[in-house]
Design a protein that fits this description.
30% of the residues lie in helices and 28% in strands. It is an alpha+beta fold and 545 residues long. Among the domains are: 235 residues, FAD/NAD(P)-binding domain, CATH 3.50.50.60; 100 residues, Glutaredoxin (3-Layer(aba) Sandwich). Its cofactor is FAD.
Length: 545
């Protein structure tokens, strides 16, 4: 088995370093973390050559981001590495909340059937990065350069010129577009004189990865003010390889250096295990870190030819697993738009919608994260009294459970106000509004084989879902073909049990059509479209109209 934490990737001199003038590349991505790698793979699958620069030659150290949501797994499926992530990761959907030492309620994040992927998997970030690096290595359009640090940038109307530092000296590289995926301490953000603004939380948390042979259920456990860690909160998650992630709230006055020492971590973990009936279980500490965090973002995610994604653009508290998941969704949004602009299928203005849509999503994530942090770490006596009263009521009163906030877990933003949406002309019910990420469902293909709806969506094109059979469905299918636009058409037969579920999920009748963007977000829907409707909607989604 590969030890992804000990991997070291070779620096290799590139011919661009010897060029008399800066070599030009359509897209240069800075930062080979989960976001940069996702973006690079997505672009390569859309036939866009990519240079990916990383300032060191290793994967992340320690588990870091571990909680990957259903929508992120669906993105990884489209990139060709979702199965590997799910097979290695620990799937879960049940969470339990404790006040003092008593369980006050449990929740199930995925109670309905008909989804291929679980609500979440827990998988150490170094595995996610390692699998993405290996997927990138299989794609010839990705040029991944380790130990290539960007130290300068000069923007022009038609692109940007980067100064890149390597072990063998500096060189310059020209890019049509630059994607800044270089993390919370983004060097590119600093080089452009930009900053992320928001709220910094005066608290400290200890993260510890521990390995133990304890037969605990695979679930999320969150304690408020337990006897083994009084006055603070604790979070416990299972990861791959028999590893467990524990988060201990420490308070602002805690000494980060002292708290990271094994002799100080051990008694905290021991007290936790003793309290849940595992006094005899032995454990080993693998990695630990003490962190503070902020909820903040850049004012704008686009600056000329530079587009910011992931932690370089926005940051949230870890409660709710909104950091890495929102970053992957940034990449999911940006890739198809860059590809369309570079192919001449859309104007440069389409990239403005990347900024507006993902700024909206960042604001939503920041609101949820801020509220969760305020509930978990109340900063006044009144706030603590309110929180404890809510928790005390939770066990017996359902209304109180809606007020408990141990982290509203990551779901994709519904881009209702996106300029790329076509407003409904017909009446629909349900969640699949324009701007929503398409919901998965089992379907039966035209050849009679069972499949998953999202697996049938084409990576490089708009997809049209045509529901039902009979005359109405055939009229819709004919209109799609007559639209004279490149479309991938998926027929969803609602006469099968699988098709009935999909039709309910989409409030579909025979002939109903849903138009999905290449990132699988709904951009238009009709009960019975005409060819002109489809043409107009696609042009609108490409910022042509």
């Amino acid at each position: 088995m590969i030890d992804y934490q000990s991997l070291r990737f070779d620096y290799r001199r590139h011919a661009d370093q010897d060029a008399a003038t800066p070599a030009h590349r359509p897209v240069v991505i800075v930062g080979a973390g989960p976001v940069g790698l996702t973006l690079a793979i997505d672009l390569a699958l859309r036939q866009v050559p990519v240079v990916l620069l990383d300032n060191d030659n290793t994967l992340s150290s320690g588990s870091r981001a571990i909680c990957f949501a259903k929508r992120t797994l669906e993105v990884f499926d489209r990139l060709g590495c979702g199965d590997r992530m799910v097979d290695k990761g620990v799937s879960w959907n049940v969470g339990k909340v404790f006040f003092h030492d008593e369980q006050v309620y449990r929740f199930d994040l995925l109670p309905e059937p008909g989804h291929e992927r679980p609500a979440f998997i827990n998988l150490q970030q170094y595995y996610v990065e390692g699998y993405l690096v290996e997927r990138a290595a299989a794609l010839p359009l990705i040029d991944l350069r380790w130990n290539n640090k960007v130290t300068g940038i000069a923007q022009r109307d038609d692109g940007a010129v980067l100064t890149v530092e390597t072990p063998e000296g500096d060189y310059q590289l020209s890019a049509g577009y630059v994607a800044a995926c270089d993390g919370s301490r983004s060097n590119l953000r600093q080089l452009l004189g930009q900053e992320a603004k928001g709220r910094t939380f005066r608290d400290r948390f200890l993260i510890a990865d521990i390995t133990m042979d304890a037969q605990l259920p695979t679930e999320r456990r969150f304690w408020f003010d337990p006897s083994f860690h009084p006055g603070q909160s604790v979070l416990l998650h299972k990861q791959a390889d028999g590893m467990w992630r524990v988060d201990f709230q420490l308070g602002w006055d805690a000494d980060p250096v002292e708290e990271r020492k094994p002799e100080n971590i051990t008694p905290r973990v021991r007290a936790l295990l003793d309290s849940i009936g595992f006094a005899d279980v032995q454990f080993q500490i693998g990695w630990a870190s003490v962190y503070t965090f902020a909820c903040q973002r850049m004012e704008r995610f686009r600056h000329g030819r530079v587009l910011f994604a992931g932690d370089s653009a926005h940051g949230v508290s870890p409660f709710g697993a909104r950091g890495a998941n929102s970053g992957v969704q940034d990449a999911d949004n940006l890739a198809w738009k860059l590809a369309a602009v570079l192919a001449g299928d859309a104007p440069d203005a389409l990239l403005d919608s990347y900024a507006s849509e993902r700024e909206f999503a960042a604001d939503e994530n920041i609101r949820h994260s801020t509220r969760a942090t305020d509930f978990i770490t109340p900063k006044s006596q009144v706030s603590r009294l309110f929180r404890d009263a809510v928790l005390a009521l939770t066990k017996r009163h359902a209304f109180a459970r809606t007020l408990v906030n141990s982290g509203r877990l990551s779901v994709p933003a519904v881009l209702r106000d996106s300029p790329l949406n076509t407003p409904d002309a017909d009446a629909f019910q349900g969640a699949m509004v324009p701007g929503a990420a398409a919901a998965d469902a089992p379907i039966v293909r035209a050849d009679g084989r069972s499949a998953w709806l999202l697996r049938e969506c084409h990576v490089a094109q708009f997809t049209a879902l045509v529901f039902g059979a009979g005359e109405a469905a055939e009229r819709s299918a004919h209109a799609l073909k007559a639209s004279d636009r490149p479309l991938h058409i998926v027929r969803v037969q609602d006469t099968t049990p699988e098709g009935e579920l999909a039709a309910r999920r989409y409030d579909a009748q025979p002939g109903t059509v849903y138009l999905l963007r290449p990132d699988q977000h709904v951009c238009a829907r009709w009960r019975q479209p005409a060819a002109a409707d489809i043409r107009t909607a696609i042009d609108h989604a490409l910022a042509k109209a």
